[in-house]
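Work Package 3 (structural annotation) set out to generate three-dimensional models for the target panel prioritized at the project kickoff. During this period the team completed the workflow that converts sequence records into discrete structure tokens, so that structures can be stored uniformly alongside our sequence database. As a representative example, we reproduce one entry of 473 residues exactly as it appears in the project archive.
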Amino acid sequence: MIEDAALSHRRPLQLLAALALIASVALPSTADAVEFRLDGMYRLRANMFDSLSLERGEERDEGRRSFIDQRLRLVPHLRINSGVHVFADFDVLDALTFGANPAGADPAVLVAVGQQQADGTLFNEPVPLTGGSLPGEDYQDSLFVRRAWVEVYTPYVDIKVGRMASHWGLGILANDGSCDTCDYGDIVDRIMVSTSLIDPVRISFAIDTRAEGFINRDDDTHSLLLQGGLLHEVYKIGGYVRFTRQPSNKFNLLHGDLWGSAKLGPVKVDLEMLINWGAAETTDIGVEDLKILSGGGALEATLSVSPWEAGLSLGVATGDKDPTDNAWHTLRFDRDYDVGLLMFEHPLPQFQIGDAANVADGPLGNVDATSAVSHEGVSNAFFIRPRFHFDLLDNLRAGINFVTAWPVVPAGLGHTDEDPRNFYGAELGGDVQFVLHNAFEMRAAAALFFPGNVYGETRAVTFGGELRALVRF
């Protein structure tokens, strides 16, 4: 079994190497020399939150959480010739806190933020990453391959094969996690064919393997993807349709997404709308005869007139009147679509359990988020986020932002006439950003979250702060 597992992990790399070799021989090319390029970024963040329990002085109050984490992302690009390119994506010390030891600590300590999988998003997750390299162990190494894929360009179609990022539109459904504040990034094992014979119309078709299962059983999960549209430099409009199926439990899910973008002078507007529709006879979590119907969307508008910039974001995601039944109507935006520093960015409230000094619990192992009302990613909510920035100097910018949200279905949060629970609260934040040579950035951000009645009596004002240094190369 160990040998089989090792072979299965080597097969993607063998496939990529074979495809690159075949394409380099079969396709016409000039006498180009093989070229190598290395892109990437290094991010260092110092974080402080007080308190994500939304209450202070209680026995289970988590108190002040402060830590420093880092990420070095390396994206090598091997240009074999003008028609064949090989890419990879390596993460080094991904979201590991200062003081963490990826080679000798307990597995619970080593789970990087970038590899965690959130509960409740069973059918829209990227391919899980595993760092297990020894029998019976599942620790995360300090260096691992996150993505690896080949791109082949021909006069008629372009082909991509391998483990790659998945992104569409604003990123509320498929998000590659490439933003400066992102922690996750959707990853798929994919074969994609694209064409743009009628410029600027581009159409892509892909087959994704989302879960392999046993190779001799009908328990795999695959997706068929069709995306494309009019992708002009000034305006874009397109559609994204993904059908996911797992035959073993007769699970079928259809994602439909429309996205439009336009930039007219100083104004830029993006709009994305999506719907999920599906069903399953059985599930891994014990729900029988599951029905899924949910939807939502987001609007982002920005007006830039130097040295001023004003923006407005709106979004809505459906919710459930009864989250415990077999009809699911809750939509959760991708976790890398960030709205605030606290709101829909951390599970709220969360409490301390166990012994905080117990190393075996890990840095987050003594945190209980089972009572959380809101989670990572916008869900069962309508939010509004106005923002304003001003360039103090050519490389120095300051801004303020405000986020407020209401539940779409208060009944799913224990709504009664006596206890309405119809307001998530408001977050007031500010930030200062310094950029040097378009390669080095320092940013300080802080926010106060004023919880609404959705959280019941647990409603202490919460502070969050972040200092971030970023180097791009």
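Confidence is low (pLDDT under 50) at residues 1-13, 21-30, 102-139, 357-362.
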